[in-house]
Amino acid sequence: MTTRPYVIDEMISAKSIAARIEALSREIAQEFADTEQLVVVGLLRGSFVFIADLVRELRLPVEVDFLEVSSYGNAMESSREVRILKDLRSAIEGRDVLVVEDIVDTGHTLSHVVRLLTSRNPRKLRTIALLDKPSRREADIKADWTGFEIPDEFVVGYGIDYAQANRNLPHIGKVRFTDGG
Ligand SMILES: O=P(O)(O)OC[C@H]1O[C@H](OP(=O)(O)OP(=O)(O)O)[C@H](O)[C@@H]1O
Ligand SMILES: Nc1nc2[nH]cnc2c(=O)[nH]1
């Protein structure tokens, strides 16, 4: 796929992300203090970096599982149709579940996933998103924990891509197009 020329301006440093994850992990550990084992569900692909850092800060017994959903493909606009590309390996009925999302934008992805997983009757289901763009919301949903609220900018890095590139940036950056279009 061809993309327009762009540069990436740093928006949230790797250090700020690490500090925020430490604080959020303490809150999550309190919320699930009585858990036998927390199933931490990462939404692929964007959350793979966030979930890796988050579970290493969580002082709880955890199992890690992944769900792959896609709504954007390589586009910058949500298709608003959420497709399940890979389901969980584990059953979650009667279990504690934390859904880990990289970014909530229109909210269609998270809202679809919460509906799907709630229908499987977990004991408790909570959600966390590293980033939230509240000004873009179309579905009525907010994650139980949010790392950072951000303005309406197209962001990349720390797991998040633009046309599959930039997932390996250690910080969050915003995409700035340089062709004036
Ligand atoms: O709130 P929404 O408007 O639904 O957008 C948020 C979703 O969009 C991105 O996923 P994408 O479909 O790009 O897949 P990826 O995680 O594999 O990059 C992102 O990772 C979120 O899951
Ligand atoms: N890469 C990327 N994907 C998104 N999906 C929803 N919002 C965004 C965004 O800002 N950047």
Automatic annotation (TrEMBL):
Pfam families, per the entry: Pribosyltran
Coiled coil: none
EC identifiers of the protein: 2.4.2.8
Example GO biological process: hypoxanthine metabolic process
Gene Ontology CC terms, in alphabetical order: cytosol
GO molecular function, one term: magnesium ion binding
Alphabetical keyword list: Cytoplasm, Glycosyltransferase, Magnesium, Metal-binding, Nucleotide-binding, Purine salvage, Transferase
Location(s) in or outside the cell: Cytoplasm
Name of the protein in its database record: Hypoxanthine phosphoribosyltransferase
Organism: Roseivivax isoporae LMG 25204
